[in-house]
Amino acid sequence: ASSPSTAEEGVLELLKSAVAAIAIIAQISVALPANAVLYSPDTNVPRTGELALRRAIPANPSMKTIQNSLEDISYLLRIPQRKPYGSMEGDVKKAMQIATENKEAMLASMPAELKEKGSELYITLLEGKVSRVNLEPLVSRN
């Protein structure tokens, strides 16, 4: 009498396993594009995959400090009330000071084939349209 019950339980377990396998295969085969926004109650946590990856990539300490300063500005701009422009001005000055003082260290960590492009971008940052001279008055007057 116990033999048919055991056989039925075995078949039932086999069916459960098959249904689970089919569900997993269906989930994998129907891959939809992921436009996910990362959620966390901590507002300093990156909200997109791009930001999360950018923070995960190792960089030299100077670039990491500049990145953190600029991301602080991005965070402060999301505040819906009155913007803390004084804090943003400090972040801009800090980033620009590090960039001017550590040029060699920042460019030394670049691959050889990208150093020329990196030098051009560096010059554009400091002397071009987004220079400290052009950026500081905009931040300090607001």
Describe it for me?
This is Peptidyl-prolyl cis-trans isomerase CYP38-like PsbQ-like domain-containing protein. Keywords: Thylakoid. Residues 52-130 form the Peptidyl-prolyl cis-trans isomerase CYP38-like PsbQ-like domain. Helices cover 69% and strands 0% of the residues. By secondary structure, it is mostly helical. It folds into 2 domains: 1-31; 49-140, no CATH class. Helix 3 packs antiparallel against helix 4 (85-101) and helix 4 (85-101) packs antiparallel against helix 7 (132-140). It is elongated and about 80 Å long. The model has no long low-confidence stretch (mean pLDDT 74).
Could you write a compact summary of the structure shown?
By secondary structure, this protein is mostly helical. Helix content is 69%, strand content 0%.
- The H-and-E topology, N to C, reads as HHHHHHH
Largest sheet: none
Strand share of the residues? under 5%
Query: How many domain regions?
Result: 2
> Helix- and strand-based class?
mainly alpha
Stretches with pLDDT under 50, minimum 5 residues: none
Oligomeric nature of the chains: single chain
Average pLDDT level: 74
- Distance N to C terminus: 86 Å
Number of helices: 7
Outline: elongated
Number of extended strands: 0
Radius of gyration using CA atoms only: 27 Å
Fraction of residues in helices? 55-70%
List the helices and strands and how they pair.
Layout: H1 2-29, H2 49-56, H3 61-77, H4 85-101, H5 103-108, H6 115-127, H7 132-140
Helix pairs in contact: 3-4, 4-7
Observed structural traits:
142 residues, mainly alpha
